[in-house]
Amino acid sequence: QMMKFAWDNYKQYALGKNELRPLTKNGHIGNMFGGLRGATVIDALDTLYIMELEEEFQEAKQWVEKSFDLNVNGEASLFEVNIRYIGGLLATYYLTGEEVFKSKALELGEKLLPAFNTPTGIPRGVINLGSGMSWSWGWASAGSSILAEFGTLHLEFLHLSELSGNPVLCLLSLSQVMNIRRVLNRVEKPQGLYPNFLSPVTGSWVQHHVSIGGLGDSFYEYLIKSWLMSDKRDSEAKRMYDDALEAIEKHLVKKSAGGLTYIAEWRGGILDHKMGHLACFSGGMIALGAQHAAEERRQRHMQLAAEITSTCHESYARSDTKLGPEAFRFEAGSEAMATRLSERYYILRPEVVESYMYLWRLTHDPKYRHWGWEVVQALEKHCRVEAGFSGIRDVYTTPPTHDNMQQSFFLAETLKYLYLLFCEDDVLSLEDWVFNTEAHPLPINHTDFKA
Ligand code: DMJ
C-alpha cells in the first residue's frame, strides 16, 4: 500500500522526471544522472514486480519501452547511474526475462566504459554520457576518485560482461573491474585500512580519511557480495573483505560509555566518534559475511552485527519522530544522537531497515520485525504527505518540516527491504540473490564464473 501510494503519486505528478516533489506536486530532475530521466521508474521496477503490483509494473515497463532515452549528453555520476539504472535494469531483466531491460542495461553500460580511460584505469567520478569525457568531482580532494564509487561497480559489470553478446564489451567490462582490484591490492594500506580518496593518475591515496559510512561504505559491501555472487569462488574478494573487516574491528569499532557499539571514522590516525546513517548498512553486511566464517569468527561477527544494528535502532528510538538522523555522535552526555543542526535530517534512507531485514532473515529474532514496524509507523506519521512521501528536516521536532523530496531509493530500497522483512524467507532468498547497493537483486552463480 505504501509502495502503491509512492508510485501512484510519482506517476501522476512526475512521471519521466527523476524524483517526485510531493509537496509542490511536480517533478525534480537534478544533476546526478547526466540527462537520463526516470530514475524513480527504473529504481521502482523490481520492487513493483516482487510486490505483484502488476498494473503499476506495466506502467513502469511501458515508460521504459516508449520514453527511456539513452541518447543524452550531460554529466552523470558513474556510481549513481551504475547502481540505480544499470542495477535496476539488470535486476528487472533477471526477474522477468524481458529483453528490453537487458538491452537498455547493455547500451547504458557501454556508455560508461570511457570513464575508465585514466592512467591507472581507476575511473573518475563524473562522465559525460554523450562525449565520454570524464573528470573528478570538484569537491573531491586533488582530483581523486572515491573508494565507494569506483569500488561499487563489480557486481553490475560482471553481469554486463556475462550478458553481453559483444566480445569487446564483455572483455572490457570484466577487465576494468578486475583492474580496480589489482590497483587496490598493490597500494599500501595504512594499518590495513582503505582510505576514501585515491588518485586515478598515480594510484596512491590522496587523503587518509577512512569510513564505513559515506565515501567508503559500498566498497566493503561489494567485496563480500562479489564472493557470494560468484558462488564463493571469487576468493580474492573474500580475502580482501576479511582483511578489511579485521582492520576495521581493530581500529574503528568502539563501545560508548553507555555501552553502545559503533564504528568510528578515522582521519589520519585520529578517531571521529561519529556514525552516519549510511554506515548503518554495515550491521546487515557483517551478518551476511558472518554466515560463511568459521564458528568463533561467525559468533563474533554476528554479535558485532547485532550490536551495530541495535545502536542504529537507538539513533531512531532516541528521536521524537522515531526516525534516525543523517549522522549521530558519541560524545560526553549525548550518545547515538545528532549534535549538529546540519545532521538532524532524514531523507527516507534505507540503511537501518536494510540491516533489520538481514538480521531478521539470519536470526529470526522477532525484535527486528518490531523495529521495522516502528519505522513503518513513523514513516506513515511523519513522512506521508498528501501526494507521496517526503524526507524531513529535523528528526527531533514534531510535527516535522518536510523537504519536498521523495527519493528514488525510497522505492528501490526502503520499501523493498521493509516488504522483505515481513515476507517468507524464500522471497528473493539470500541463497539465490545478492542485492546491489541500491537493493536491486542480482542472481548468484547463474552461469559459470571465471575471474
Ligand atoms: C543509495 O543510493 C545507496 O544505498 C547507496 O549505496 C548509498 N546511498 C543511498 C541511500 O541512502
TrEMBL record:
Q: Which cofactor does the UniProt annotation name? A: Ca(2+)
Locate the residues binding Ca(2+): T437
The catalytic activity of this protein is classed by the Enzyme Commission as: 3.2.1.-
> Catalyzes what?
N(4)-(alpha-D-Man-(1->2)-alpha-D-Man-(1->2)-alpha-D-Man-(1->3)-[alpha-D-Man-(1->2)-alpha-D-Man-(1->3)-[alpha-D-Man-(1->2)-alpha-D-Man-(1->6)]-alpha-D-Man-(1->6)]-beta-D-Man-(1->4)-beta-D-GlcNAc-(1->4)-beta-D-GlcNAc)-L-asparaginyl-[protein] (N-glucan mannose isomer 9A1,2,3B1,2,3) + 4 H2O = N(4)-(alpha-D-Man-(1->3)-[alpha-D-Man-(1->3)-[alpha-D-Man-(1->6)]-alpha-D-Man-(1->6)]-beta-D-Man-(1->4)-beta-D-GlcNAc-(1->4)-beta-D-GlcNAc)-L-asparaginyl-[protein] (N-glucan mannose isomer 5A1,2) + 4 beta-D-mannose; N(4)-(alpha-D-Man-(1->2)-alpha-D-Man-(1->2)-alpha-D-Man-(1->3)-[alpha-D-Man-(1->3)-[alpha-D-Man-(1->2)-alpha-D-Man-(1->6)]-alpha-D-Man-(1->6)]-beta-D-Man-(1->4)-beta-D-GlcNAc-(1->4)-beta-D-GlcNAc)-L-asparaginyl-[protein] (N-glucan mannose isomer 8A1,2,3B1,3) + 3 H2O = N(4)-(alpha-D-Man-(1->3)-[alpha-D-Man-(1->3)-[alpha-D-Man-(1->6)]-alpha-D-Man-(1->6)]-beta-D-Man-(1->4)-beta-D-GlcNAc-(1->4)-beta-D-GlcNAc)-L-asparaginyl-[protein] (N-glucan mannose isomer 5A1,2) + 3 beta-D-mannose
Pathways per UniProt: Protein modification; protein glycosylation
Q: How does it sit in the membrane?
A: Single-pass type II membrane protein
Its annotated compartments are: Endomembrane system
What's the name of the protein? alpha-1,2-Mannosidase
Name the gene for this chain. Man1c1
